[in-house]
Design a protein that fits this description.
The protein has 180 residues and is of the alpha+beta class. The chain is 28% helix and 29% strand. It has four helices and nine strands, in the order βαβββαβαββββα. Belongs to the TBP family.
Length: 180
Amino acid sequence: MNAELVNVVAGGNLGVTVDLHKLSSQISQYSVNYEPEVSPGLHFELPQSGVTVMIFASGKYHLTGGEGIDQIHEAYDEVIDIIGEYVNENINKEDPDIRNLVYRGDFEREFDLSELATSLEDADYDPKKQPGLRCRLNNQSGLITIFRTGRFTIVGVKNKKEGNRLLHELEAKITELVSN
C-alpha cells in the first residue's frame, strides 16, 4: 500500500475585522473572488504555494489546498504579509489550526466491495449512490473511502500521527481480510 498526504485544510482568526470590499480592490493582483451576494468570504490563491485563502469580515479565515502542514504555515505567513499591509490593527499571529488532512493511496489490487463491506465494521456500500465503500475503523475520526480499483481516500484526521495510525490500521485490517 502506498499513501500520501494531498491536502491540508486549516483556519483561525486574525483577531481583526476586515473590510472585504476595500481589501478586494487592494489585493486585486491575487485574482480575488469576492461576491458577497453569493458567499460572505473573499477568496484568493497565493501565488507561491497555490494555497487558497478565504477570509471573512470577522477576521476568521480558512486555508485549503496545502500539500503539507509546513506549506500551510508558510501560506499563513504569506497571508499575514499580504493582509498586514492593508489592515491598520494588530493581527493575531497564532498558528492556524489544522482542521482536516486528506490522504490518497492505493492498495495496488482490486477489491470486491460488496464482500469487503460485509467484513468491515461500520462499512457503508451502496453502488447506486456512490462507487466507493465508506467506513470508519474503530470509531476513529477519519472517514475512509475504498474503491474497487484499490484506490482509497482518507478525510477527517487532524494531525499526521492520527493519519498514520489510521493508515496502519487500515493496511492491517485489509491484509487480514485478504489473507483469510
